[in-house]
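Dear colleagues,

As part of the handover before I leave the project, I'm documenting each prediction I ran so the next person doesn't have to rerun anything. This entry is a single chain, and its sequence is reproduced below.
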Amino acid sequence: METVETEPGAEALLTVGNLQKSYGDRAVIADLSFTVFRGDSLVLLGPSGCGKTTLLKILQGQIAFDSGRVEFFPQDAPRSLVAQDYGLFPWKTARGNLELPLLLAGVEAGERRKKCARVFSELGLAGLEGRHPGELSGGERQRLALGRSLIMEPSILFLDEPFSAADPVTREGLEDLLLSLRRKLNLTLVFCTHSLEEAALFGERILVLWGRPARLVRSVEFPAAGRREAGTSPEFLRRVFSLRKDLEDLAREYGAVRA
């Protein structure tokens, strides 16, 4: 296992320690530990079925874990999730979907309008405020879901394979948008994916999960991550090749992970 060095004095936003989760007699996560620091772009890489979505639901407080610890600093720190299925309400307009977190938080109407206008502009959705999700393209729906997750200015943004359903051109545009927003807003990301290219593009730190139950089996870093131009560099290609070899070795050592 490659050790990841962290700069002295880095501010921890989330610590996961010895996390365990089972569904009945089926163990899903075993003894998982890691820390997320402010400004991180942390990728959790692993094949489909290895427990990544379960882990994010635990971190979001949607499901309980059996043992271990999950600590946010502060404990009530705002966090948001961008899911694979967008999570949009089809009966609400784009504006209604975007402002929902603000409405639930009691933000007054004028401030809601101002925040929504800014996010629609930043995401290239201006003019679509009155449309319903069914009237938007897949890329527009994903941008709307991303905007809804960002509008409350979360300390950590969790992403669960958010672009997996997009076609290659749309996917690249969404990745570029997220990279741009991360730089502009200094976002802290925890990005779950099974894509080697996406892991190498976003993952300044990459934690490789494997097995049922999921365990942390590799920990690597990629300082050049987070820039689209890095995606065509020799170093990027070497990182993708190295990650592919890691996964092939794991498949031989532990066997394939089944969904």
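Helices lie at 52-59, 94-104, 109-122, 138-150, 168-185, 196-202, 234-254. The mean pLDDT is 84.

All the best with the project,
I.
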